[in-house]
């Protein structure tokens, strides 16, 4: 089955700096790579996703890049703000028959004001 | 739509008792997932259903865990008997069928087994 590795586990940045979180996956059949943000005590919520026919996608201060050859994808947050502080999860969808997301272990991002 | 609805939000039970968690997916979504979240193991897929049929239950930890989806609008996850190591937040999620798309999560049930 799919295995998703995520790094770093914790990340502390100053407000206004950029943050980068990286993930690798094992199943070459994966085609869908979402990123979720989970605030303390709340549910994970999708912030951005990318599909395998696209190398990069941007939404305001958030961007995601995908390298299918190397089987890794990254989340980039620019001009970080205190409200960006949360746990971020990457995920991959694995083979077509399974179609259930496998999540990385999460990155706790702390933005220092 | 109110989104994915889970109940109860919090459950405290004694070791050995039966626990039933409930989930109502978003109307029209054909896939339903149960995840367990702990600090040590992160978000683990327990089981998922497609059109009410269990497709993959390889993540169910033991025979003490069982899940059902009797119809398109309701699913249960049962633990019998419960143990302290089952303490976690259990999330239900649903997604539309036919394409690779996001899973919409419920608010979760925080289970504490004492």
What can you tell me about this protein's structure?
In chain A, 0% of the residues lie in helices and 54% in strands. Chain A starts with a strand and ends with a strand. In chain A, a hairpin with a 6-residue loop joins β4 and β5 (45-51). Chain A is an all-beta fold and 113 residues long. Chain B has 114 residues and is mostly beta strands. Helices cover 0% and strands 54% of the residues of chain B. Chain B has no helices and eleven strands. Chain B has strands at residues 5-7, 10-13, 19-24, 31-38, 42-50, 53-56, 65-71, 74-79, 88-95, 104-105, 109-113. In chain B, β9 (88-95) and β10 form a beta hairpin. The model of chain B has no long low-confidence stretch (mean pLDDT 93). At the A-B interface, β5 and β10 of A face β4 and β5 of B.
Strands, helices and their partners?
The complex is a heterodimer of chains A (113) and B (114).
Chain A: E1 4-7, E2 10-14, E3 19-25, E4 32-38, E5 45-51, E6 56-59, E7 62-67, E8 72-77, E9 86-92, E10 102-103, E11 107-112
Parallel strand pairs in A: 2-11
Antiparallel strand pairs in A: 1-3, 3-8, 4-5, 4-9, 6-7, 7-8, 9-10, 9-11
Chain B: E1 5-7, E2 10-13, E3 19-24, E4 31-38, E5 42-50, E6 53-56, E7 65-71, E8 74-79, E9 88-95, E10 104-105, E11 109-113
Parallel strand pairs in B: 2-11
Antiparallel strand pairs in B: 1-3, 3-8, 4-5, 4-9, 5-6, 7-8, 9-10, 9-11
How would you summarize this macromolecular structure in one to three sentences?
The complex is a heterodimer of chains A (113) and B (114). By secondary structure, chain A is an all-beta fold.
């Amino acid at each position: 089955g799919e295995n998703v590795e995520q790094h770093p586990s914790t990340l502390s940045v100053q407000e206004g700096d950029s943050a980068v979180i990286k993930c690798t996956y094992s199943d070459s059949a994966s085609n869908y790579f979402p990123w979720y943000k989970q605030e303390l005590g709340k549910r994970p919520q999708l912030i951005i996703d990318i599909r395998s026919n696209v190398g990069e996608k941007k939404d305001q201060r958030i961007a995601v890049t995908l390298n299918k050859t190397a089987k890794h994808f990254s989340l980039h947050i620019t001009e970080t703000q205190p409200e960006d502080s949360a746990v971020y999860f990457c995920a991959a969808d694995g083979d077509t028959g399974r179609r259930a997301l496998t999540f990385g272990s999460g990155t706790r991002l702390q933005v220092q004001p | 739509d109110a989104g994915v609805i889970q109940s109860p939000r919090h459950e405290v039970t004694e070791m050995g008792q039966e626990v039933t968690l409930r989930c109502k997916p978003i109307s029209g979504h054909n896939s339903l997932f149960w995840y367990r979240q702990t600090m040590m193991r992160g978000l683990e897929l327990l089981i998922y259903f497609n059109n009410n049929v269990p497709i993959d239950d390889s993540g169910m930890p033991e025979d003490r865990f069982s899940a059902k989806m009797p119809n398109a609008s309701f699913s249960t996850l049962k633990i019998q008997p419960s143990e302290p190591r089952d303490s976690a937040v259990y999330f239900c999620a649903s997604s539309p069928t036919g394409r690779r798309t996001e899973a919409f999560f419920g608010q979760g049930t925080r289970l504490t087994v004492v």
